[in-house]
Structures are given as C-alpha cells and as structure tokens.
Amino acid sequence: MVLPEGFVPPTPPEPPAVPRDAATVMLVRDTAEGLEVFLQRRVVGMAFAGGMTVFPGGGVDQRDVDASVAWHGPDPDWWAHRFGCSPALARALVCAAVRETFEESGVLLAGTDAGSVVADARPYHEARAALVAREVSFAGFLADAGLVLRADLLRPWANWVTPAEEPRRYDTRFFLAALPEGQRADGETTEADHAHWQRPADTLADWGNGECALMPPTWVTLSDLAEHPTVASAMAADRTLGKIIPKIVRDGGVTRVVLPEDPA
C-alpha cells in the first residue's frame, strides 16, 4: 500500500513515540444486499489520519478505567485475556469503545438493564455533547441515565499498532458490534466531514479506483469483513488476536506500508 506524500516524516523519530491505547468499533448491519459497515471520512488536515475513511473510535480517556461503570457481559478479565493486557486496561478499552461509538456516531451500546438495549439514543443528545466536551465522564453519564454498559454486544476483532516511523502512534483494539434495533448512526461529529453505510467489498473497490483513502488496518479489516455475508456470521467469527505492527518502507520517492507476513 502506498501512503500519500507527507503522510509520515522523512526521518523516523528517535526514540519512537510510545503508542497510545485506543479503541475503534466496526458497526455492522444486515441489508438485502448483504452486510454493511458504518464508515466516516476524517476531516482533511487533522493531525492523525486526515482525509482517511475509518471506523468510529479514538484514544482511551483516563476516566474510562472507572470501575464504577455498570457492566453486563464478559468481565474485564475475559477481555484482558483476549487482548493480552491488564484487566484495568481491558475495562478502559471496552468503555472507550462504547463511549467513542456514542460520541462519533450516536449509537449507544447500553440499556436500562442486562436484558435491554436503548432503542433510540436521541434523548441522550445533550449528554453526548457533554461527553465530547469532556464535561462528564462516561461512568457518570451512565449512572445519571440509569444505564448499563452492554459489553456482551461487542466482539474482539484485531489489534493494530501504528508503525514506529510515525510520530503519532496508537495501540488500537478493533471491536465488532451490530447496530441495535431502532438506533441510527449519524455523522454528527467535528472529526468527520462525511459518513455512510457501505458493503466492505464496495469500499475496497472505491479504494482501488482512488475514490477513498484507507489505512492498512482499515483495508485489512474490510477485507476480513467482506468474507461474511451476514452480521451473525461476522459476530460468530473465531478471531485469533495478536499485535500487528506494519513497517514503513521507502522505495525511491514512494512510501509503502508492509505487513508482517510480507518478506519485505
């Protein structure tokens, strides 16, 4: 994969930047044409991945580790085992995944109890804005709203780490979640200038035609998703997780991304 000119600095930072923990969520839904995934195009000029088509997500907030979050589903120990991290970080990653999904798409993976899911997240619009502004914590929002985080609605999918050659690095855990019935995903975030649902194969075709820009993790994830005809199939996938760290290779005036299984 070829990166746009100027996407990475001409010389790598020394020492390499320490990756920041992050979470991203692939929201999927079933349609008559097959599985679709929710995508957003980041605003051009942003410090990281400007102009790229991505899934909702972002960095872990220090308050995401709050153990008071009402929780239903696999416990932090289970997530820690899957992602190879501490239970405290696993809790923060799941909270960040649900929080960022709500902030960036308006989809809320929570319910009033362990057996329910919010059918319409629009009544929480003001709380969403307060979360984006960091005026409230996610734990505080859930407590005030009387909601329980539904960790059981998420599936672990992959773990990508930004190459050492880049000045901004993230250790990102990828999650999969089905769009809850009755909810809708929107593009009401200042970090994106466009949002849409699309079949993974069609997004890859757009990338091949130069109609959208994808980072390697997004490209690979879309390729994996394209193998699943339905949401149920994707949610049932048995994923083997391990940190994937691409490498930046400069070939003349072209900057390429090389994946671990590539001989280069």
Automatic annotation (TrEMBL):
Residues 18-227 form the Nudix hydrolase domain. GO terms for molecular function: hydrolase activity, acting on acid anhydrides, in phosphorus-containing anhydrides; metal ion binding. Gene3D superfamilies: Nucleoside Triphosphate Pyrophosphohydrolase. The keyword Iron-sulfur does not apply. PROSITE patterns: NUDIX (PS51462). SUPFAM superfamilies: Nudix. The keyword Magnesium applies. Its cofactor is Mn(2+); Mg(2+). Keywords: Hydrolase, Magnesium, Manganese, Metal-binding. This is NUDIX hydrolase. It comes from Actinokineospora fastidiosa. The lineage of its organism: Bacteria, Bacillati, Actinomycetota, Actinomycetes, Pseudonocardiales.
